[in-house]
Amino acid sequence: MIPLALSILASTFIFVLFRLFSRYSINTLQAIVVNYFVACSCGIIGYQNSIELSAILNYDWFYFTLALGALFIIVFNLMAKTTQVSGLSVVSVATKMALVIPIGFGLWYYQEPLGPFKAAGIILALVAVYLVSVKKHSGVILQKRNLLFPVLVFMGSGLIDTSLNFMQNDFITDKSLIPIFSSTIFMTAGVIGIMILVAQKIKGVLVLESKNVIAGIALGVPNYFSIYFLVEALGSDLLDSSGIFTLNNVAIVVISTLLGIIFFKEQLSVKNWIGIIMAIMSIALVSLTAL
Fold first, then answer.
1. What average pLDDT does the chain have?
2. Distance (Å, whole) CA 166 – CA 97
3. Least C-beta-crowded within 10 Å: which of 21, 122, 158, 244?
4. Are 211 and 27 in contact (CB under 8 A)?
5. What does the radius of gyration of the chain's CA atoms come to, in whole angstroms?
């Protein structure tokens, strides 16, 4: 339970930082790129054994981490594009509803049991994250010509969580390798991010600012631990992956929303509050499967 709780807290802290990014006009791409290298450094520091590049290259999961690191930065850019063309509510719904993908994968591929409490909890969770994420009384407004971007965000976000679950179950038999496994993912994303920044520099649209670097450093630490503890939770005997992803996503949604009310004076609609109540109910139902 402790690794899951720590992953939720780290992910929630990321939410707070992103809200502060908008307040202080932080260039999110620059901060994200710096964040990946900081997160990578956290993994290297946390790895207790000596690091041998040749050994890392020979791990079964190495090439998967390269693909996953690329997916990290691709999904981020898709989220930015979706926000521009469709708004923040659409991005929020697409990313949070994506939990259905790793849940479905766990039920199908690993034959995880689906009892009545868990089934009811998962259904409630899906409805809850939608209701909480929508910050417009009329719901999500999405034009057909812009449908591709949120669909790609939905699929990409779900694929990231599913891949983490798959690699943790099938490739990371030695849990001491989690730090270096996570670092490889972040390093790949960071290198691709540098390429994007170089392309911007060539086009003459890149303006580097120290505040973006500082923001990236602040983001990198919780980002690393959100992944590290999630992978650790997936390898625990607390719950199967469908239960872990349900509790993780729903708890992040609820806590982030409550922090938004307290610190950022967000105004919630009746629909949002109903979603929070349903989210708490879903957590209770899924938690019953662990008893």
1. 89
2. 19
3. 21
4. no
5. 19
Higher-scoring residue by pLDDT: 160, 54: 160
Torsion-angle region of 265 (φ positive above 0: left; ψ -120 to 50: alpha; else: beta): left
Task: Give the Cα-Cα-Cα angle 245, 246, 250 (nearest 5 degrees).
Answer: 115
Question: Tell me, what DSSP letter sits at residue 267?
Answer: P
**pTM of the complete model:** 0.90
Q: How far is CA 196 from CA 73, 108, 203, 205, in A?
A: 10, 37, 11, 11
Q: How far apart are alpha carbons 198 and 14 in whole angstroms?
A: 26
Tokens linked to 284? 């209770």
Distance between CA 89 and CA 46 in Å, rounded?
36
Q: Which one, of 22, 25, 38, lies nearest residue 219 by Cα?
A: 38
DSSP string, 6-55: HHHHHHHHHHHHHHHHHHTT--HHHHHHHHHHHHHHHHHHH--SPP-HHH
State the CB neighbour count (10 A cutoff) for residue 191.
17
Mind listing the pLDDT tens digit for each residue in 142-197? 566 678 888 999 999 999 999 999 999 999 888 889 999 999 999 999 999 999 99
The interaxial angle of helices 88-97 and 62-86, nearest 10 deg, is 150
Q: Tell me how far apart the alpha carbons of residues 163 and 105 are, in angstroms, rounded to a whole number.
A: 10
111: CB partners within 8 A, 6+ apart: none
- How far is Cα 124 from Cα 246, in angstroms, rounded to an integer? 10
CA angle in degrees (0–180, nearest 5) for 167-169-174: 85
Owner of token pair 């009811």: 120
User: Residue 161 and residue 152: Cα distance in Å, rounded?
Assistant: 14
CA dihedral (266, 271, 274, 276) in degrees, to 10, reads: -40
Q: Would you say 81 and 151 are in contact if contact means Cβ atoms under 8 Å apart?
A: no
